[in-house]
Amino acid sequence: MAHAGVLGTLNYAEAAYIHDLKAGLFNYGTYRETVFPNALISYDREALDFPTERISRFALVLLDELGYLVDIIEKPANKQTHKYKDRIGKLRVSMNLFKFDGKMIYPYLKNCPINSKRKEKELPTVLLNLLREHPKTVVGIPFSEHVPDLTTKDDIVTVKKHLEENYKRKDFL
Fold first, then answer.
1. Which of 53, 97, 56, 49 is nearest to 73 (CA)?
2. pTM for the structure as a whole
3. Nearest partner of 66 among 154, 159, 1, judged by Cα
4. 94 forms bridges with which residues in the sheet?
5. What confidence tens digit (pLDDT) does each residue in 82-141 have?
6. Which of 165, 145, 148 lies closest to 32, judged by CA?
7. Strands 39-44 and 92-99
8. Beta strands in the chain (DSSP E)
9. Which residues contact 132 (CB under 8 A, 6 or more apart)?
């Protein structure tokens, strides 16, 4: 089975992941590691414990039936959200947790235009440019759990508190 002709053939773990998705056997939380070179966590929007107004500012992701990223949109308008439901009717959001193959993503990072309003390069633009030339190279790993948001410096205290309260291992704090 070819993997979009870019990355060679699927290995056993990749094939098992796709099999589970197709068979409806996907168990949220079992895929905490991935063998895919490019991936992102696609959080169930309903599981995030934030005010609706804050969640509405998160990027929505659209995955195909095999879990590959098809589209990502920053701060979608309410009228756009229905287009981004997954095969089980969930809206998936990106909290900017990515895994990238450096050699593959670097040219797209380097050549990404600066967003005229925000005066920065946007990762969704990088991803969409990558997918135009290399479709089916980024997989979305679905999770249904709350995760603290670290968008601004004001969020640091909240995230640190969440980690201290919920994780016994302290060597990363």
1. 56
2. 0.71
3. 1
4. 42, 59
5. 888 888 888 899 988 888 999 999 999 999 999 898 888 988 999 999 999 999 999 998
6. 145
7. antiparallel
8. 39-44, 59-63, 69-73, 92-99, 139-143
9. none
